Amino acid sequence: MKKLLYLIALYLFSVTATAEQFQLSTTETREKYFFVQLQYGLGKGKAFSQILKEIEIEKDSVAVRILGEFSEISNRELISYYKRKIPNELEKALASSGNLHNPTLRPLIKSFSAAFKTTQLFQEIETELQKGGYVSTIVEFEKYTINTKGTPKIWVADIWLRFDKTPNQSFKPTPKAVRFNSIVRFTR
After folding, report:
1. Cα distances (Å, whole numbers) of residue 120 to 1, 16, 23, 48, 183
2. Would you say 104 and 91 are in contact if contact means Cβ atoms under 8 Å apart?
3. DSSP code, position 137
């Protein structure tokens, strides 16, 4: 019994210890939005919540660009989504070459934004930005391919996410700091 509890505890620790990790590449305040570029899939870095503690956002819109390859967790979640929603199309795509211009990938490409929104990766980012009053408005991506040899692996060159303040949450500059997630400040 002790051994079983130990194994369960070890499993739960490994699941929580493998939170999606990012490296912050660039932040920039642009005319209409705040831009954040993240490197992903390097096997090291920080949780998105930790990155938010390092930056200040003073815009009603945030654009997040994610570069890199999906972790095993995200890849498994994407494949699982396709298996549940479009199993026949996934099967055809996996039987194909999986390259960028292959027409059998079109159903997967068409469903990618919805599939991506179900991943832990997206949900971590969304949850943290929701704490500041932002809602997801756009998921865009470039160059979708899938490795069909061995374990299927999805690759997307980069992903663009956009989050906007809800109308009643719009940023209003004041001399007093407004706390974001108890740490990041929107200041003027």
Report:
1. 31, 11, 17, 11, 23
2. no
3. E
Give the pLDDT confidence of 59-108 residue by residue, as tens digits: 999 999 999 888 889 999 999 999 999 999 999 999 998 888 899 999 99
Sequence-distant (6+) residues with CB within 8 A of 142 are 156, 157, 158
pLDDT at 136: 95
Q: Do the bridges between strand 34-40 and strand 61-68 make them parallel or antiparallel, or are there none, so unpaired?
A: parallel
CB atoms within 10 A of CB 135: 13
* The residue to which tokens 């938010």 are assigned: 52
Which residues in the chain belong to E strands, given as ranges?
A: 22-29, 34-40, 61-68, 134-147, 153-165, 178-180, 184-186
Boundaries of every domain in the chain: 21-186
Q: What angle do CA 23, 27, 32 make, to 5 degrees?
A: 140
Neighbours of 186 (CB within 10 A): 19
Counting Cα atoms < 13 Å in the Cβ hemisphere of 50 gives 10
d(CA 163, CA 136): 4
Distance CA 87, CA 90 (A): 5
In 90-127, which positions are buried (b, 16+ CB within 10 angstroms) versus exposed (e)?
bebbbeeebeeebebbebbbebbeebbeebebbebbbe
Q: Give residues with Cβ within 8 angstroms of 31, minimum separation 6.
A: none
